[in-house]
Design a protein that fits this description.
By secondary structure, this protein is an alpha+beta fold. The protein contains 4 helices and 20 strands. A 6-stranded antiparallel beta barrel has the order 2-11-14-13-12-15. Strands 1-20-16-17 form a 4-stranded antiparallel beta sheet, with no helix packed on it. A 4-stranded antiparallel beta sheet has the order 3-10-8-5, with no helix packed on it. Strand 12 and strand 13 (254-266) form a beta hairpin. Helix 2 packs antiparallel against helix 4 and helix 3 (101-133) packs antiparallel against helix 4. One of its GO terms (biological process) is xenobiotic detoxification by transmembrane export across the plasma membrane.
Amino acid sequence: MRTIQLLAVLFLLASCKGKWEKTQPSVGKITESVYASGIIKARRQYQVFSRVNGLIVSIPVTEGDTVRKGAPIIIIRNETAKLNTENAAIAADYNSVKANADKLNELRVNIDLARIKLNNDSLTLSRQRRLWEQRIGSQQQLEQAELAYKNSVTAYDVAIFKYNDLQKQLNFAAKQSGKNLEISHTQNDDYIVRSDIDGKVYSIAPKNGEMVTTQSPIAVIGDAGNYYLELQADEYDIARIRLGQKVYVTLDSYRGKVFEAVVEKIYPMMNEKSRSFTVDAHFTTAPPVVYPNLTLEANIEIQTKEHALTIPRNYLLGEDEVMLENKERKKVVTGVKDYQQVEIVSGLTANDVIIKPAP
């Protein structure tokens, strides 16, 4: 019985020994990169919102159309706004200085009459004073001439004041009415949703006859044929990402193919929910056909070594040890890592044989 057990143990050891996988360090190129996910976006891509709530009466464009800046995208019913504009136009016309020219002319005539009376009363007073100096007439006549002159001066001043005051009121009313008309025109134009750029209509959410609100986007517009990559990089990797670094991109739409891009912008604010940073990149070798919001996976190249001594990553024990062929554990210093290989800076040579740790 004891002999059978010994043979079983020897057989087990022999079987385990045969399962050890071996390899030797090799010299080659290794590239360290960090992973990022993201989507493709059109340049200047933005969501279109309506400034007013209302019912859609017309959609002059369809998805895929190219539009000029200021072109109508969606037209909303605006009967009330039109009536308000018409009322504002009526008020502006009624309060214009030109429409009230008769009132000003009337006061201007009153000023001329008051001036004539003032001149006459001034002459009468001067004559009455000369007569009184010659003791001709009476004191009462002189006082009456002086009172009439003062009244004429007051009447003349009042006539000028009324004219200036009316002119000021008319100018104010005309400007106010004009501004109200401008506001009405602006509000009326809010019922036409226009493109802010020369670009392409990528999507339109509502349909003709549906209601739109100011809270929900109604369309997406961006540059036609000019795209970039919006990547999300983990906060632990962002410190190693720099402008100009190469990006290797894979898309589900082009399985098995890798496209190249370059980092062009790093946003400094971290998204607290996802604990990630936004990084923009542009294609240097782009797919033949691209659409906004296509998902992608990217590897941002951090550094590359052409002649590095490397071993497979799954041969490492922990972070800094390997197992030699004689089962001895050996300390190593690692350098650049990718998803499959790791650089050995020191601790091994190309002649060493190492074995893969048992799972």
